[in-house]
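Q: C-alpha cells for this one, please.
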Amino acid sequence: MLDAMMKAPVGDDVFGEDPSVNRLEAMAARLFGMEAALYCPTGTMSNQIAIKCHTQPGDEVICEKNAHVYIYEGGGIAFNSGAQVRALEGDRGRITAGQVSLAINPDDVHRARTSLVALENTCNRGGGSCYDLEEIRKIRQVCTDNQLKLHLDGARLFNALVATGRSAAEYGGIFDSISVCLNKGMGCPIGSILIGPAAFIRKARRIRKVFGGGMRQAGYMAAAGIYALENNMQRLAEDHLHARRIAEALQKKEFVKSVMPVETNIIIFETEADMCTKEMTQYLKEQGVLAIPISANQIRFVTHLDVSSEMADKVVDIIEKWSK
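A: Here is the predicted structure, written as C-alpha cells:
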C-alpha cells in the first residue's frame, strides 16, 4: 500500500484534476452500482455531508439511539445541518421498518419535518452486528412511501458484506447515499467515500468545500484506497475469525458477565459489577493489548489487518491466564 501511495499520479482534487482520486471515486461508484462518489478525509465528514444534503434546518433525522452519526460525531447533525434527531431503541444498533414507520412525524406545523432515516452497518455499539438486507428493503419501502431519504453509515460495510455474502451493488440499489470507510479494517491511513446519484454528489462536493474538506494532491491517500479495494476486502474474514476466537476465550472467564454475539470484527463484553474497566484496560495495555472501556462495565476489542494470527493467539493466552 505504501509503495502504491509513493508512486501515485496526483493533481489538484479541488479542480477535479487528481487522477488517483478520480479513479478511486469511479471504482467506488461502479462497485455499488451508483452514479458517482466523493472522496472525503473521514467517515464523520462523509456522513455529515450526506445529512446536510438530505435535510433542511428544522428537519428531523431518524436513527438508532447509539448510532455513530448521533453520539460520536460531535453533535454534527445539530451544528452542521440544524436538524434534530428521533433516536430509536434498536436491537444491537439495528432498527426495524415498523419502528421507522411509527417514528415519522405527521404533516403538522407544530412538529419537525421528518426527512431522513440513517442506518449504520455494521453497528459499532452493537458489537459489529449486521443488518438483515430484507429488513433494510422494508425500511426502504417505508421511506419511499413517506418521501424520506435513506442514508447508510457504512463505516464497516465491507465487513458486513464479507460476513453475510451480500454484494455492494445490492446496497447501492437501496440507499439514496452510502458512506464507506477505507481505514479501519480496510487498512488505509485515512479516507472515506460518499456514494450516490450524480446530482447528489455535485451538491456534496460543494458542502465538502464549505466543511474544509477540499484537498489538493489527495491522490497519495486515494492510492491507498485503490489498493485496499483491490486487495484488502476479502481478507476481512480473517479479522472476523480472530474476533470469534477472542470472544470464546472471554466467555470462559468468571469476571466476564456477557459477550455480545460476534458477527464481524468487534468484541464488546460486559464485566461483573466489581470489576473496574479502566483498571482492566490498563492491565491489558501493560500486556501489550489495546482496548477501550466504552462504559462503566463494558470493554471493546477490535480486530483488523494489523492484528496477525500470532497476535490473536497472544491475546487469547493473556485472557486465559487472566485472574482477578
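A few notes: Residues 236-321 form a domain with the Aspartate Aminotransferase, domain 1 fold (CATH 3.90.1150.10). The longest strand covers residues 113-120.
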